[in-house]
């Protein structure tokens, strides 16, 4: 006969052989003994926790020739035929591959026929959540009022996908994940029966990797046995399951305690090169630090340890940690685990988490040895001020006035030093300003604004170009804060200048100035150059007035008019003053 996997050979054949689920076994056995079974059951829970096995055992107990019994005898013809899968009155139906309404109607048509050789006709519908809505509707009425000789057992891993009308017509049993102890005990029974030597530490590694599923555990055990040959070793189990050894956990934790981040990252790189999944590593680290916390707070509960062993070195390691540090590390790893689900660079997230863990308990205050002389001087000044204020309070003086007097110059100084006006560069632009340059910028202003990023365009909502020379232009801002933000954002200045060059053909460098400062600089320039009264003879003799003289200012063209003339020609544009 061909080789069969452990999970098939050692499938439970009675309630006593089932691992865990004691609350379900006791309820079903009492119902069998006292003939209080119902017509429909819903078995829900994670994979590999015994749902289908429990359904078959329950079916055997219902149709056992010795009934009513709490356990099937597994010796009568009915029990044997159900075990072999040849009993025509126990129908197993896979809803995953038969989800259409036609298959469900075929079952419903045969429900009314009495069982051929048994007391009950039992339908075991596996993965019932895969049925279509039409199939559920067809099953609904029959599930509510089936014939007395019919029992439905529905099994699913996703009960939330079932209609509430189906759930309300069934007795629901929720299967829980098996504990590590239950899984290890069952694997010991299997290996003892098979005559295979075992190492309990190896079985713990397999149970940890199975995550509460007995079928997964037996499948991994099968792989480890096949891989190891004569004797199972811890290294073989770690390689097959993809887990990491306790020694590696210990080394990484010790490196983190000693703040040797280089060693910790080196060990992590070695694990990733060996094929370990960073997402799985984060989960294992969380479990390991949870074990250290358990060793600290409840050393007697060593049976609950999952990754760390009950050894002296781990107890000594746990004593090196403050509980707050372990809580903080677990919190960092938990947040990292959530963020890694949406990233393809999981290793980088894990490396960053290790860096955060090392720096999590770093002192936040600056020591006095590393404080700068300026900081020390300010501290001394504040101490003297406090002493003076305390003395004034004792003498009955008002402390608010000195404080306000000292605070006001500081506020004024901060506001004045918020943005440094480039007066010299602005005056250079005014000296060489030309109308064609400013008109070229204003004509293409709307187009450039439309091409900018939203964040960059938002800075220019209240801005206006007011003067331009051959290589630079002055950009006036209504609000000082916008001017400051634009000046600090070098990316914005470069992108804006390059985009403007595409439409004007010239590389203009923007110079930023607040509205109030611009008016003062412009007025001072006009007054110092005698442009207002036209006193400059050279300017008076020139054919075109300076853009910032009285005549030049009056003659400055509106950008909308310039754009209209560019599009339609000056002969077709008429200007009407309101």
UniProtKB/TrEMBL annotation:
GO CC terms of this entry: DNA polymerase III complex
GO biological process: DNA-templated DNA replication
Principal EC category: transferase
Classification via SMART domains: AAA
Catalytic activity: DNA(n) + a 2'-deoxyribonucleoside 5'-triphosphate = DNA(n+1) + diphosphate
Entry annotated with the keyword Transmembrane: no
Keywords, comma-separated and alphabetical: ATP-binding, Coiled coil, DNA replication, DNA-directed DNA polymerase, Metal-binding, Nucleotide-binding, Nucleotidyltransferase, Transferase, Zinc
Annotated segments matching region Disordered: 533-556
Biased composition (Basic and acidic residues): 534-546
InterPro entries: AAA+_ATPase, ClpA/B, DNA_pol3_clamp-load_cplx_C, DNA_pol_III_gamma-3, DNA_pol_III_sug/sutau_N, DNA_Rep/Repair_Clamp_Loader, HLD_clamp_pol_III_gamma_tau, P-loop_NTPase
SUPFAM superfamilies attached to this UniProt entry: P-loop containing nucleoside triphosphate hydrolases, post-AAA+ oligomerization domain-like
Segments forming a coiled coil: 372-399
One function term, GO molecular function aspect: ATP binding
Protein name listed in UniProt: DNA-directed DNA polymerase
Gene designation: dnaX
């Amino acid at each position: 006969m061909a080789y069969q996997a452990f999970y098939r050979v050692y499938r439970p054949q009675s309630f006593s052989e089932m691992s865990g689920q004691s609350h379900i076994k006791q309820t079903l056995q009492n119902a069998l003994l006292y003939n209080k079974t119902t017509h429909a059951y819903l078995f829900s829970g994670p994979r590999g926790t015994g749902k289908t096995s429990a359904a078959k055992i329950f079916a055997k107990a219902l149709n056992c020739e010795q009934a009513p019994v709490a356990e099937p005898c597994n010796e009568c013809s009915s029990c044997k035929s159900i075990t072999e899968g040849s009993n025509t009155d126990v129908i197993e139906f896979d809803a995953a591959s038969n989800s259409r309404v036609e298959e469900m109607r075929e079952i419903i048509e045969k429900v009314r026929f009495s069982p051929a050789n048994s007391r009950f006709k039992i339908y075991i519908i596996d993965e019932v959540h895969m049925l279509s809505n039409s199939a559920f509707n067809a099953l609904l009425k029959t599930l509510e009022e089936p014939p007395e000789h019919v029992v439905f057992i529905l099994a699913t891993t996703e009960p939330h996908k079932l209609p509430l009308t189906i759930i309300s017509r069934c007795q629901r049993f929720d299967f829980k994940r098996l504990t590590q102890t239950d899984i290890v005990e069952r694997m010991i029974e299997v290996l003892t029966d098979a005559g295979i030597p075992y190492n309990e530490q190896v079985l713990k590694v397999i149970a940890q990797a199975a995550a509460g599923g007995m079928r997964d555990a037996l499948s991994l055990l099968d792989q480890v046995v096949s891989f190891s040959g004569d004797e199972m070793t811890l290294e073989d189990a770690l390689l097959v399951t993809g887990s990491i050894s306790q020694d590696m956990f210990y080394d990484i934790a010790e490196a983190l305690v000693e703040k040797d981040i280089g060693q910790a990252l080196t060990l992590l790189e070695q694990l990733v090169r060996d094929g370990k999944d960073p997402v799985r590593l984060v989960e294992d680290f969380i479990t390991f630090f949870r074990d250290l916390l358990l060793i600290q707070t409840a050393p007697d509960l060593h049976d609950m340890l999952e990754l760390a062993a009950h050894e002296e070195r781990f107890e000594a390691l746990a004593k090196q940690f403050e509980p707050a540090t372990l809580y903080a590390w677990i919190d960092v790893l938990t947040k990292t685990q959530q963020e890694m689900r949406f990233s393809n660079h999981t290793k980088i997230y894990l490396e960053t988490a290790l860096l955060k863990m090392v720096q999590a308990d770093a002192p936040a205050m600056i020591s006095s040895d590393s404080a700068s002389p300026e900081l020390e001087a300010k501290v001394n000044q504040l101490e003297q001020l406090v002493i003076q204020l305390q003395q004034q309070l004792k003498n009955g003086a008002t402390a608010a006035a000195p404080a306000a007097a000292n605070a006001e110059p500081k506020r004024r100084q901060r506001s004045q030093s918020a943005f440094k006006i480039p007066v010299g560069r602005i005056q250079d632009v005014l000296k060489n300003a030309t109308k064609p340059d400013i008109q070229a910028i204003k004509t293409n202003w709307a187009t450039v604004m439309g091409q900018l990023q939203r964040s960059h365009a938002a800075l220019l909502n209240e801005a206006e170009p007011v003067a331009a020379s051959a290589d630079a232009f002055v950009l006036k801002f209504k609000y000082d804060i916008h001017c400051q933000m634009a000046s600090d954002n070098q990316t914005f200045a470069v992108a804006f200048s390059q985009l403007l060059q595409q439409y004007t053909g010239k590389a203009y460098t923007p110079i930023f100035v607040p509205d109030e400062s611009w008016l003062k600089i412009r007025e001072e320039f006009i007054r110092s150059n005698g442009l207002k009264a036209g006193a400059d003879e050279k300017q008076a003799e020139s054919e075109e007035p300076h853009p910032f003289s009285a005549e030049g200012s009056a003659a400055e063209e509106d950008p909308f008019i310039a754009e209209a003339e560019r599009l339609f020609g000056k002969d077709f544009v008429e200007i009407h003053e309101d």
